[in-house]
Each structure stands twice: as structure tokens, then as C-alpha cells.
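A student in our group prepared the protein record below, which I am reviewing. What it holds is a sequence and that sequence's fold in C-alpha cell form. My question to you is simply how this chain folds and whether the C-alpha cells agree. Do not assume that whoever made the record got everything right. I have pasted the whole thing underneath without changing anything:
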Amino acid sequence: MRKYKVGVIGATGMVGQRFVSLIAGHPWFELSAVAASSRSAGKTYEEAVSGRWMMPDAVPESVKNLNVLSAESDIDAVVNAVDFVFSAVDMKKEEIKALEEAYAKAECPVISNNSAHRLTPDVPMIIPEINPEHIGVIDYQRKRLGTRRGFITVKSNCSIQSYVPAFHPLKDIFGLDRALVCTYQAISGASKTFKTWPDMVDNVIPYIGGEEEKSEQEPMKVWGSIRGGEIVLADSPAITTQCIRVSASDGHFAAVFMAFKDKPKMDEIKRLWREFSGRPQALSLPSAPKQFLHYFEEDDRPQTKLDRMLENGMAISLGRLRPDTQYDYKFVSLSHNTLRGAAGGAVLLAELLCAEGFI
């Protein structure tokens, strides 16, 4: 098959680097353009990330000599070189919204890792295994933008990836009523390493700006419905969260409590987790995990260091399901925040959009 030509805007930051690494070995995608701020524009990609490359593997050979374009000034050059772009730019929210719309209006589909458009009513925010049907709102968005090909899709916040997938197979069958979630989030979620953030070594910070609001609101859009050309938010379940930064390099962990209208048995929950799969598995998309939800019976699993790379960092790890005195059940969960929760999830979304004919 013909490979899709892909661009990354915001290619020099941590998530942008993860995009570059994933696309370099991808069977469907070929990296044809990289763009970043004016500080990096005009350099080779290798020069632009020199001294700040944060991925475990070296800069891919196929990318080293790509010329870095300006994400803002070279829109036409980027668009002419690619079939679509991934967005991982680090700018103010309103600037990101304007920039991503500029690419879309230039007839370039945008798959964004940014939060700017997550609550825009006709921009789908998709976890591919959970709400692939939200792709249908793209036709309405194109009418608003006046485009034929161009559109914007976004992936959800990294924090919700560990618990929303676990809730999803149970939510409608048993009537998930309310949930309490405490997340323990790795420093890569702040685009940091221990080298660049030494204060986080042996430390916990009990606050991540804006994260709790996203963690409570975004599931309502994922579970929303398309009506009148936009996504109307779901009104349940009630979710309250607390988000904490912890001394881990990668991997967002969650302690989860849940109550149902019709309380299931523990064996039923485990069975539904084990059997759950979605559209990416049905289509055998390249980045899709074969088993989306993995349940560990061991009392001391999942563990961040041992399990975050399960199925190339694209699976969700669950464990310690047991009754609770205040809620019906509690469990723990783990997802890789820069793979499933960021660039990897966006790549999987792009695969879905290509397979379904939207790109």
C-alpha cells in the first residue's frame, strides 16, 4: 500500500519526539515534514533536538537531516508536503486553536495531542476502542470550517486513559453511578525528565494545574452523543478526581472506586474486562494492542516499571479488584502516558481515520 505522508508540528518537544520515534518505524506512515518554533526553524532536526533528545532510542536516521520548518510561518510548505499532521505544539490555548484551524482550513487534517479543542463541540475527542463513532461529527465540522478534506480531531487527556477504558464495558450494563479516582502521574506528563526536573527525585507534588477538571469533564465528552452536528456531553456517571505528580519517569497510575445502580459480581467485571475489544482490534490496526485491558491477579501488580510497556505501551493494566466499604468496588490501573496517553494514542487514532476513509 501507498504510505501516507505525515507531518509533526511541535516536533522538538517531548511528545513531538515520541511522534517522530513512532512514525519512523510505522508500516503505514512516512515522516515527510517536521515543524516547530522559530527558534528551531531552519535547522536540521538533529541540530534542533541536540542536547534535549529525551527518547530511549537515538534520533531515527531517516529524520536527522529533515529541515525543520516554522509551525506558524510555513503552513503552506508543511501542508504541501503531507497528507495530514500530528499537533504537539507548546503554545497558549487560543494560539493553538487558531493554528490548528489554520491547518484544517488549508485542507490538512489535524490529529492533535493538545487540549485546546477538546471541548469544541464539533471536534471529536476519541479513544479509538471506546467512541470511534464520534468520527461522524467530522462531516459537520467540515461544513463549519468550509473545508473538503481539512478537519481537527483530538485525543483525550493522558490522565483518563487508565480508568475510562476500565469503566466503559461496565458503564451501561450495570449502570455506573459514581466514581472516585486518584491519579499518580509520571513526570513525563509535564514533558520533564529527572535530569531536567531534579526536584522531583524522591518527591510528590499534590497538584497538577487543570488536571482534575480535565479528568472529570473529558469522560463526559468521550461518552457523549452526536446531536445537531455536535457532541452533546453525557451527564453521568459522576466522577470526582485528585491528581498528584509522583517520582516516576513514565506511566500514570490510578486508584479507583466505583458504585453501580445494579451491582455486578467481581467475576462478571473481570470477564467483561477480559472480553472487551473495539474497532481497532476488529480492523487489526498496526498500533492496536491485541488485548486492550489486562487484569493481573497478583496482589502487587500492575507496577509502573514492570507493566507500563505492556503491548508496546498501548494496553491498560488493571489489578486489585475488591469490594469497598463506601463504594461497591475498588481497583488500580496503569497506562503509559506518552504512548497510549499521548503520541501512541494519536497514532492509533490516525490509523483509524485512514482505515475508515476520513484521510
Remarks:
- The mean pLDDT is 96.
- The CA atoms of residues 61 and 137 lie 38 Å apart.
- The two ends are 14 Å apart (CA to CA).
